[in-house]
Design brief:
mainly beta; 5 helices
Length: about 260
Amino acid sequence: MCGRYASSREPEDLVELFGVEKWDPTETMEPDWNVAPTKPVWAVLDRAVKGAGPQPVRQLHVLRWGLVPAWSKSAETGVKMINARSETVHEKPAYRQAFASRRCLLPADGYYEWFTPETAPDGPKGSSRKQPFFITPADGSVMAMAGLYEFWRDRSRPADDPGAWLCTCTVLTTDAEDALGRIHPRMPLLVEPTGYDAWLDPARSDPDELRPLLVPPLAGRLDARPVSTAVNSVRNNGPQLTEPIPAEDALGDATLF
């Protein structure tokens, strides 16, 4: 799964990296090295602009992480829907409509995953202590996580209320490649630059045409490094969370990675 990630690039950089044609400079937010569910996140999507014709335009927007299906009675549903399994996303009622026409890319520096070392000392009340890892492209490039987005209407608000509509998103996951699978069996589905156009194209709606795009990343493309347990708390933030810790400070056999 993917439950935390880092996203610190400036929107101007994302505009250039993803070929964005429309971004409102007033739509911005601070860099975040500890993105957690329900937080605002950057999303790249192709969508027609109202009043400008049917042609899709590549846009950069801030969405809320945790998808709320259009038919949901409450926005609280999104807390549980931060990830969608790529193997079944085309058939699940909560995701299949978004998969057909509302796909996006969620830019990240990397994501966090937690490993339970066999030799780690017990945590509070006998719980297993876990070692966090930061997993990031080995070449320092941007990580483009495959995502879906959805619009939800809050019926308790009048139609002209800006807060009446909520746009949310989810991260698609896949089987982790061999080395990363030792940390956790699942990982975000990543889209390579050559696949951006096909993934974002809303005209592609046939699941049989879309599923071949859902392929795990090549082995060795990502680097995993143990980081401080400070990332465990969503109250902590800053680039220091992504910095590797000395091997002797890692928990138990986490040093084997």
